UniProtKB/TrEMBL annotation:
MF annotations from Gene Ontology: hydrolase activity
Highest taxon of the lineage: Bacteria
Top-level EC class: hydrolase
The protein's Enzyme Commission number: 3.1.4.-
PROSITE patterns named in the record: HD_GYP
Keyword Hydrolase in annotation: yes
Keywords for this protein: Hydrolase
InterPro entries: HD/PDEase_dom (IPR003607), HD_GYP_dom (IPR037522)
Protein name (Swiss-Prot/TrEMBL): HD-GYP domain-containing protein
One Pfam family, short name: HD_5
Positions of the HD-GYP domain: 110-306
Length: 357
């Protein structure tokens, strides 16, 4: 639910995290005006709330809360260790980094292996300050699922997963004032930001227990299929496949996250953007594979139909991701139905989704 529609007295239905992975507001906490204002101040625009009409609808997390918390904590700690270090040249600041992140990736793979379907729903709620760390985790999960779909072996998955967890480590060298700037960046600020892939590569390649292929996820994740990226303007297969996957996952998760300089895209809008970028920014076949595992309208998403009805997604249809099953919350006249009922959109061609609420 958008925070503008949240009311005092409602209960938090899914935990909200701080930047270090600790709990900001836990599941079951009763919201009040002070909490709501605090969430707004932290840049949180959507959150899950309890609703008697949808008590039986539970959006399934693809990764457990404990795995996420531990992973985000590791990312937070290692990013801060490099942010606090003035010079990384010739020094290994985190000698156990490779071992720690292989263990973290192993936890992610354990969670994924317990899933019957690889349909992705990463609707985790976090503060703006937590973006960098939660973002790296989300990119790792998205990348790992693409790696599984492509049939990567365990060693390849580990190289990709560790590289994805650490792909943005070079951002530890970018001042927070630039990262959180609401307006356009100056030329000098843009040069600092565009140096982060090389900074990240230089950090990772000094750690002998991290694969050079993992380090290339940091170096090449902003390269683009048509040569318009940076830092080396590589094209097509000149870009390592791991970096292509991480770059695609990075773009998708960035689009669907709330940022200081723009509002988030909906998942469906982000998918439209990716398909429009096929053959230019990203390989078209890779985009198709990636999007086939994305929940376009995640369970518990509130939608408006062309009939004027307000509905909530109750179940995804894996054979028609754009046509979920929905539960009617309000009829076109604004009143709740006397008896709750659902519409299977894949069977109703006359009913379309007009927008997400």
């Amino acid at each position: 639910m958008h925070i503008d529609r949240v009311e005092s007295g409602q209960l938090v239905a899914r935990t909200i995290f701080q930047e270090n992975g600790n709990v900001l507001l836990g599941e079951g906490v009763e919201l009040n005006d002070r909490y709501i204002q605090r969430l707004r101040h932290l840049g949180i625009d959507y959150l899950f709330v309890e609703d008697g009409k949808t008590d039986d609808i539970h959006p399934e997390e693809i990764i457990s809360e404990e795995t996420r918390r531990q992973a985000v904590r590791e990312i937070h700690n290692v990013m801060h260790s490099f942010k606090d270090a003035q010079d990384v040249k010739g020094r290994v600041i985190e000698p156990d980094m490779g071992r720690k992140f292989r263990h973290t990736f192993s936890s992610i793979m354990t969670d994924l292996s317990n899933r019957s379907t690889m349909l992705i729903n990463l609707e985790t709620i976090h503060s703006t300050d937590a973006y960098l760390f939660q973002h790296s985790f989300n990119v790792a999960v998205l990348s790992s699922i693409v790696g599984l779909a492509k049939g990567f072996n365990r060693n390849q998955l580990e190289e990709l997963g560790v590289g994805a967890l650490l792909f943005d480590i070079g951002m530890s060298k970018v001042p927070a004032a630039i990262i959180n700037k609401k307006g356009p960046l100056t030329k000098d600020e843009m040069e600092i930001v565009q140096a982060h892939p090389k900074e990240g590569f230089n950090i990772l390649r000094k750690h002998g227990d991290i694969s050079l292929m993992s380090a290339h996820c940091a170096l090449q994740h902003h390269e683009r299929f048509n040569g318009s990226g940076y830092p080396r303007q590589l094209e097509k297969d000149e870009i390592h496949l791991y970096a292509q996957i991480v770059g695609l996952a990075d773009t998708f998760d960035a689009l669907t996250s709330n940022r200081p300089y723009r509002k988030r895209y909906t998942v469906s809008e982000a998918i439209e953007y990716l398909f429009a970028a096929g053959g230019t920014y990203f390989d078209h076949e890779l985009i198709k594979l990636f999007c086939s595992h994305i929940s376009i309208y995640p369970v518990a998403t509130t939608l408006m139909l062309n009939t004027g009805q307000m509905v909530v997604v109750s179940e995804n249809n894996t054979l028609a991701l754009h046509r979920p099953k929905v539960r009617v919350l309000k009829e076109a006249d604004g009143n709740a139905p006397a008896t709750p009922y659902e519409i299977e959109l894949k069977d109703r061609r006359d009913v379309t989704i007009t927008k997400e609420l």
